[in-house]
Amino acid sequence: MTAYTKLEQRFTRLSRLSDALGILGWDKETTMPLGAAETRGEVIATLSVMAHTLLTETETTELLAAANAEQDALGVWQRANLREMRRQHAHATAVPADLVEAAARASTACEVRWRRARGENDFSGLRPDLQWVLDTQREIGQAKGEALGLSPYDALLDQFDPGTTQTFIDPIFAEIGAALPELVGRAMEQQDSRPEPTPMDGPFPIAAQKALGEKLMRAIGFDFERGRLDISTHPFCGGASQDVRITTRYDENDFSSALMGVLHETGHALYEQGRPADFLAQPVGQARGMSLHESQSLLIEMQVCRSDAFLRFLSPLLCQTFGDQPAFEAHNLAAFLRRVEPGLIRVDADEVTYPAHIMLRYALEKAMISGDLALADLPAAFNDGMQRSLGVCVPDDASGCMQDVHWPAGLFGYFPTYSLGAMTAAQLMQAARGALPALDASIENGEFGALVSWLRDAVHGRGSVGETPAIIAEATGGPLDPSIYLSHLRRRYLRD
Amino acid sequence: MTAYTKLEQRFTRLSRLSDALGILGWDKETTMPLGAAETRGEVIATLSVMAHTLLTETETTELLAAANAEQDALGVWQRANLREMRRQHAHATAVPADLVEAAARASTACEVRWRRARGENDFSGLRPDLQWVLDTQREIGQAKGEALGLSPYDALLDQFDPGTTQTFIDPIFAEIGAALPELVGRAMEQQDSRPEPTPMDGPFPIAAQKALGEKLMRAIGFDFERGRLDISTHPFCGGASQDVRITTRYDENDFSSALMGVLHETGHALYEQGRPADFLAQPVGQARGMSLHESQSLLIEMQVCRSDAFLRFLSPLLCQTFGDQPAFEAHNLAAFLRRVEPGLIRVDADEVTYPAHIMLRYALEKAMISGDLALADLPAAFNDGMQRSLGVCVPDDASGCMQDVHWPAGLFGYFPTYSLGAMTAAQLMQAARGALPALDASIENGEFGALVSWLRDAVHGRGSVGETPAIIAEATGGPLDPSIYLSHLRRRYLRD
Questions:
Q1: Which one in A195, A281, B76, B361 has a CA-CA gap of 20 to 30 Å to A472?
Q2: Does B39 lie at the interface with A, CB-CB under 8 angstroms?
Q3: Residue B165 domain-assigned?
Q4: How far is it, in rounded angstroms, from Cα B275 to Cα A107?
C-alpha cells in the first residue's frame, strides 16, 4: 500500500470523527436536554483531541514525507488532496496539544459566560473569560504564523479561509469602505422618496412557515434524503457528510426572517450536498473555505431570493400559504425585504450596510490580535466605529461589542469571510447570468436546476481541488473584484 | 499519578466515546435521513474501533498489571472498578481486531437484509448473511471462552450479563418451564369464565398520548432535564450519561401499547439516571447487566403499572386525557392489560406466556452456537418448539424464527436476560413491598418516590460495585428464586 493510500485511509477516519462531531454539535443545539451540557462538552472535547492526535501523530508526519516521492504518480485530485492534507497537518502540528485544549476550554467557558453577560449587559463580567480566549487565540496565531510563514492574524484567517491574507483583504475593503457611505445615503434618500411598504398581516402559523420553507428548499434543490430542516436558537448549517442539517427559528409575527434564514442556510447546504462524491471523506472533497461557503448562502439568499424575479415567484406562494393580502405583492415584498437602514445589529443588517459591520469587526480584531487594542478599550472603540461608519449610536454593550458570539467562541479571523462571500456571490451571479441567459425567467418560474448545475460545476463539485482565487477566476473569468458587488448594490438599491 | 488514576482517565475517554456512540445510535433510529445510513454506519464503526483500540492497546494492559500492586490502597468502589476494567479488557482482548470488524460488518449487513427478508418471508434469502453472523459469533464465543475459562455460549452470555452461565440458567428455566403449561392453561380457563373486557373507543390522538406518557414518566421520576422521549420504529432506551433518551411508537387506535412501552423504557431510564454520580464515566458506575436492567423495566411496566393499585391511579387520568368511557374503569383495564393468550410474537406476549418464547430461543441459540443446530434446520426447530411449548402453529418464518432482530444483529446470549429480568423484578418487588408497607397505597395515589428511592439504594446507585447475585441477595435477602415469580403469576392470574 502506498503512503498516499494510507493517508487517504487516515483522513477517512478523520472525516468519520468530524461527522460524529457534526451530529453531536447539531444535537447540542437542537435536541439535547440542558442537564447534558457539561458531559456533552466533554464528549466533544474528547473526540476533538482524538482527531487532533490522529492528524498530528508521528505516523501522519512520516506518511506525508513518504508521499512526496509518490507525487508524480498521482492525478490532479490526489495531488490537491495531498496539498490539503499538508495544510491541515501544518495547522494542527503548529499548536501544542495543551494550547489546543486551553483554547477549547477558554471558548467553551466564555461562550457560556457570554450568554449571561450579554443578557445582563455586563461587559466587565465577560472580560476575564474573553481575555483568556483572546490570549489563547493570540498564542495560536503566533504559533501558526511561525509554522506557516504568516503574520499571526493571517494565520488565524487561514484557518477559516485558506490563502486569504490582510494584504488581499485590505484593498478590497478599502474600495468598499470608500464607496459605501455615499451608497447608503443615496439608497436611503431614494427609499424615503417612495411610499412606505404595506405591512404584512400576521400571525403566520409556524407549521405553515415550515411547510413553505421546505417547499422552497426542495424547489431550489435541497435533498431531503440527505438532510433535514430543524429549529435552533441560532440558525446554522451543520450535520455530516450525506446528512446536511440546517436550522432556523420561527416568529409567528414575521415569516420573513425565518424564511430568508432558511434560504440562506439552503445555499450553504447546496454546497455541502454538492461536494465531489468521490472525495467526500477527503480534505480535497471539502468546501474550499468560509468566504466561498458564504458566497453560496448569499448567492441564494441575497442574489437569487431577493431578486425581482424570485419575489414574483414567491408572491403567489405566500398567498397560497398564508392567505391573500396586498403586502404579498412582489413590489411590496421588494420594498420590505430590501429595506436599507443603518442599525445596531449585524445579523439584522441589510445587504448595503452589512459590510460596515464587518469592516469594523475586522479592524478591531486585527488590533486585538496585534495587541494594539486592549479589551478594556473594546467597547469604546466599537461604539466609536459604529458612530463613524454608520452614524449609529450604540446604547449598550449588549447591542454593541457583545452582540456576536464569534469573539467569545474564539473565532478571530472569521468575520471578513462574510463580506468576501457577499462579493464573491455577486461576481458568481454575474457569471451565471452570462452563462444562463434565461436565468431570471427560470427563477421567476421557480426553476433553479440550471443555476444549481452551474454552481455545482463551478464551485460545489470542485471541493478544494483549486484554491479560492482559482475557483473564482475559472468560474467568472477574473479575480475577486469588489466593483462587481458595488455595481450590484447600485443596480438594486439606486436603480442606476 | 498512580496506574489506577491513569486507568480512570483512560476509561473516562472510553465513556465519552460510548456517549458519542449512544447519541449517534439514537439519532440513527429517530432522526437521521435515510441517505445517511451508509456513512453513519462507517462513523459508528470508526468510533467503535477507536474504543476497542483504547481498551486493548498495550498501555492499558500494562496499567492494569501495574494497578495490581496498588490494590490495597484502593477503596471498595475503586477495587470493584478495577475488577470491571479487567472484565472489559479481558472481553476485548480475547477477540482479534479483524474478527471484531468482521462481526460488526456481518451483523450490519444481516440486519439490513433481515428487514427485507422478513418483509418478504424469505428465510433462504436471509440465510447466507445469518450464517456469516453465526460463524463470527461462534468464533467470538470460542475466543472469549478460551480467554475467560468459559464455554463459548457462556462467554457470549457474559457479554450481556456478567457472571451468568448456563449452569445458573438451566435449573431456573427448568422450574419455570415445568410450571408454565398448567399455569397458562388455568389462567386462560379463569379468563374465559369472565366476561370479555369492554373495548376501548378510539381514536386516541398522538399528542394526547405523548402528553400522558410524559406526565406518567414525570410522576414516576424520569428527569427530563437529563433525558427525552421521542419516536422510533423500535422502542428503546439509549442516549448517553446525563442524557437518557427513551423512544416509543404511537398507534392512534390503541394507546396502551405505546403507553406500556413508555413505562417499560422509563424503568430502564430510571436505572440509567440513577447510576452512581461519582462513577458515571467509570466501568463500576455502569448498570450491572442486562438481566438487572430488564428487571428495572419490568418492575415498572409489569409489577407496578399492571398492578390493581396503578390501574386505579391510571383510570381517571385516561378519562381526563381521552374523555370518559366505561372501558377506562380500573377493573376493565386489568382485564385488558393482563390478558393471557399464547401467540406468535414475543414482543406482543403477555407476562405468563413470555418465558416460553425466551426458553425456546435460549435452547435454539445454545444449539446454534454449539453447532448442534444448522441454520437450515432453524425454521422447523422453531416452529416445532412453538407448537410444543405454547400450542401455537407458526404460519410463516416472518412470524417465526425471523421475527426478532437479535440473531441477525449478532446478539446471541441476550434472550435469557429478558426472563431472568422478569424473575428478578418479581423478587425485588416482593422485597420492596416488605420494606415499604404502604407501597400499594402510594402507587394508587401516584406517588412513586419511596419505591424509586428504594430501587436507587438497592440497584441503581450500586452500579457495578457488586455482582448481580450479590445485588439481588442484598436487596431481597436471597438468591434469584423463580418460585417468587411463579407466585406472582399465580397471585395475579389465578387469583390463588
A1: A281
A2: yes
A3: no
A4: 30
